[in-house]
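Q: Joint fold for the lines below.
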Amino acid sequence: MNQIDKHIGRRAFIRNTGLASGGLIIGFSWLNSCKPKSISAEQALEMPKEWFEINAYLKIGDNGVATIYCPNPEFGQGVMTAMPMIVAEELDIAWKDVLVEQAPFNTELYERQFTGGSQGIRRSWEGLRMAGATAKQMLKQAAAEAWQVPVSEISVSDGVLSHEASGKTAGFGEMAAAASNMEVPEKVETKAVKDFKIISHSKKNVEGKQIVTGEPMFGLDYQYEGTLIAMVAHPPAFGLKLKSFDDSEVRNMPGIVDVFQINTYDDNFVRNFFDTNAFPDLVAIVGKTTWEVMNAKKKLKAEWEPLSEKKLTIDRFGSISEITVPSGLESTNKHNELMEKMASQPGEIARKDGDPESAFKNAAKVLERSYSCPFLAHNCMEPMNFFAHVTDEGIKLAGPSQAPSIIESTLASRLDVPAEKIEIEMTRMGGGFGRRAYGHYAIEAALISKQAKAPIKLVYSREDDMTFGIYRPSYQATYRAALDENNNLIAFHVKSGGVPESPLFANRFPAGAVDNYLAEQWVINSNITIGAFRAPRSNFTAGVEQAFLDEVAEAAGKDPIDFRLELLKRVKENPVGEENDYEPDRIAGVLKLVKEKSNWGQTPPGVHRGVSAYFCHNSYAAHVVDVVMDGDQPRVEKVTCAIDCGIVINPDAASLMAEGAIVDGIGNAMYGNMSFTDGKPDHSNFDTYKMIRQNEAPKEIEVHFVQNEIDPTGLGEPPFPPVFGALANALYKATGRRFTKQPFSTDKPPLVG
Amino acid sequence: MAKLDLKINGQVKEVDVDPSTPVLWVLRDHLNLVGTKYGCGIAQCGACTVHLDGTATRSCMLTVSMVGNSEITTIEGLSENGDHPVQKAWMDVDVPQCGYCQAGQIMTAAALLDKNPNPNDEEIEMAMNGNICRCGTYLRIKKAVKIASENN
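A: Joint structure:
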């Protein structure tokens, strides 16, 4: 790959110029002011006497040590390590001389401080490289001026600047002061992939030591003098709202400071897309310690009343729409009946190629299968929480959020304060999985702090967290396939929908591979709040589509991998339609890699295998799942995984992410289930909400990456959805039965007799 | 409220709390030892695991009045410098994703190895089964326990 010139975008230029001229990041001191212990990694490195800010992403000390800021919030995906690796690569500093800190939340300095959609690395790749490369260029410029030699003659390696002809060398620390005053270059070169020394070379989690020693890092650990604890009481069922409450027993309980009602936003408030919230009217209980507030909450008497149908205005990043929230107390049984009814009727046509009706009519063989899945709770290990200190001077917030910019915008609007007065510290998140993109809990914390006139930390109990959910929707899909007398796939039909969202991707595989194709969808409205859950919609669609294709391959008498590869070849050579939103070569690539690595076709005795492959969130993943039978219980023995996400930044951490996605996929496919009875969630804690545990995880997972030089794409989500399909296909081989209703652990045939 | 002397991480700490308060909240809210995590409050997830006289114990359901003279060890007290074999193995293997459950996992693993220095796979699974990791790092947890066992 040739070296490429990158032109700095106008915004980056302004940003960098501003910083080079001084002081925009001066407010950093507050970042560490509340942390009782210093960063462990720092203890290993000698600290410089003076730091020089080069740009928003890094500063260099007079001893050559660099601090690189991770702009995005961390919830376990590894950006705190991976993003600084990219900056360090282009800066050309030795990784041992790098310290990492979470950047402040600052929309002026950073473009996308959002964790979600597997877009962190993909969307920041160029900016992070530019941050490192421009800094390196400024250091070179400083050396050139100091040594009075042309800048083009200066080389850099591992934080050392050299001029070969004169034999002069200097560490970054010696040139940092001068570099910080250099003009920011308009164009710089970034490295060729073959020259990477840090990227694609595994680095340990930079916060590993802090995690294993229990240092305060998470929102729930946040310390601030005089902080009171707050909890909220919300309606016990979706479809209910607060009518009144009686706090007479609560107020005099030990440690209780105040009890009052808050309204997070009223029905006329224009909500941001991530302001999903079923329960805006809450009772807040404020006290001195968590246990005292938990006890007081149990004694609170509240009355609830049915919600009337209402309309809400949603601002989806500038596009305004109105949604209707229906009244009623909904139940899973009723949802299932409604879904079956919708599945039996024509849906809204999302894509139609050829003449599917005739093709099905004239087919030699027609297959049909229906699938469903329940709602899922995110169940992040760290329950929702946020710190807030609202004063007349400004608002200080700290806590776990995937989308601090939404919190800032909503809170500015809700409290009618300028965004500049809101300061948000991004703490490490104890998981997110999409749930922490919905920041109502931060708004609640701010409203409680304002009313209580005190710094408060809002804490959700596990029960609050699980029953005040923004769940993965319940979905249903019916697939049909038509084969001709030569077992060619001549027509494909998918009709899917859900409560209250359709999971359909009309333009994904096998769209484009079949002459006659029909995709339909439908929706059942609901007052149960739903939202992003690791690979939204794909987390159902991938699994069922891949399970159905397995069945079609079997009916056609073909090997499931060969069958898919044939279809992908067709898309490559002669695609149907122009809207196909995947690259057939890259799906074929992961299938071929997983075929090779799993020794497909040489299944060990006693092992039952299933395969799947899927594209979502810009990346490609394929799995082979090996199931063995323990008596009559199937167990996943091994998973072999192949991924194409372009350049892999931190390979070992990327493998870890895929391992986690696979375990998460098996867990949710086998056990995940949130059901409702009269609007009330049937599960509120881990005693009945079954999570996958150590003995149910596969014994072995192998992760392989397709080696290429394509710009990196996301990894948090793509390996997750296809697990459901590969598992279903392996279970079929193991039991002779197609598993169609998630969770599979309860998908049993009806008792006969 | 009651004044109690607690033996925590080799020191005696006096706390003035309602005797029914779980040790978890005494640690977190009264003693500023927040490495021990709240996950479920009903001893189902293991995030709050501490050692009570060396035995892995869920601190969310252990009331402070039940502790008596027993010694409590938390993640902060497991080693001086984060160099307990289990902590070192955790860093070697790079176990954590979000990291929230890991203090509890480490405390359970350390107690296991204390009693059974060479556990087999089944024994590791049995001991670690009470600790949920939502990120799904179970394979690395098991690998780290084995490495710690070998290095111990």
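Q: Anything notable?
A: Chain B touches chain A through 59 residues (CB under 8 Å). The longest strand of chain B covers residues 2-8.
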